[in-house]
Amino acid sequence: MTKKSPEPSTRPDTLLVQAGRHPHENHGFVNPPVIHASTVLFPDVETMLSGKQTYVYGRRGTPTSAGLEEAVSALEGAAGTALTPSGLAAISLALQSCLSAGDHLLVADTVYGPNRRFCDAVLARFGVEVSYYDPLDLDALKAAFKPNTRAIFTEAPGSLTFEMQDIPATAAIAREHDAIVLMDNTWATPLYFKPIEHGVDLSIQAGTKYIVGHSDVMIGTVAASERAYGALKQCHGDLGLHVGPDDVYLALRGLRTMGVRLERHMKNALEVAGWLSDRDDVTRVLYPALPDAPGHDIWKRDFTGASGLFSFELKPCPDEAVHAFLDALQYFGLGYSWGGFESLATWARPKPLRTATSWDAAGPLIRIHVGLEDPADLIADLEQALAAWAATRG
Ligand SMILES: *Cc1c(COP(=O)(O)O)cnc(C)c1O
Known about the structure:
12 strands, single chain, seven-stranded mixed beta sheet, alpha/beta, binds pyridoxal-5'-phosphate, 14 helices, five-stranded mixed beta sheet, 394 residues
């Protein structure tokens, strides 16, 4: 008997290990080759002109990029996936693939900040009309559709403030208007929420975060439903987007362990978030997996897990006390991005990023990424930083 690639499994852990690998078509090597390429040679002119050769030019794909695309499509239940050089490029590609001058785009007010900037600075310049909506107000959303509304952008939970938008209900409204539904699903990853199963057409991940998981690569993925994939693939080719093979390889390598990493991120985050919510100096914790947190019901209904990123609001204090708190942290690094193995903290400032809603919290908002360290160390770190905060606050 000769070994072949096994039948694809739908169980997530098996899928993460198997998807996009074909060892027995690749001299038996467990992982796909890292192919550095621009030129691809053809055996003869006839083949060159026929368009039938699988790989024709480095920019248009290699067995390395095909491996990651195949794995993400399997995980997302997608018709196909496009890879981009960053998460933000995945957002901009997805939007460009479905919008034209004169179209109207609806964007959740709580999306990732640079996404707004792309919509306001670039899409608007190309004649796309952009408006923002409150992700928690479905009646207002229904009223916001116009005859030229072509697409709606969603994100759950919202960036920085973790509002749980009802994705199935939003997608159902969009369907009535024949609008394409886009979702930034970086927080949950398709392991914990399946956008395409819930009515989304273009499911976006900043692979930089949990797919890569080690804070060393920037990459993005857009997985498409049947009706959105043709335009996505065309636009990806037309824009000339390409990801270097070493980065694709590291993303594939990260993907293999994403399941076990996410499980631990969630366990640690629940412990740290629970500890924070019992503190007198913390006004509230915005982590949808906590039973008392805003949006918990929707999270519980639609999501099968939570990742390691959440925010909490401190009691009102002068800015110096926020500096003292963040500067005192030892295990939590001060830095952008998240999704790596290590813990991070930032001072989240959503107020200037909101136009359809307002952010009027009296105290400062701290966003943390809970990494894979022992949560006892993380809690001790937060405790001593809160002592520095209290000493400065007076
Ligand atoms: C980080 C992030 C992005 C952008 O990803 P990059 O790879 O940094 O460009 C997009 N969406 C969300 C929700 C993010 O957190």
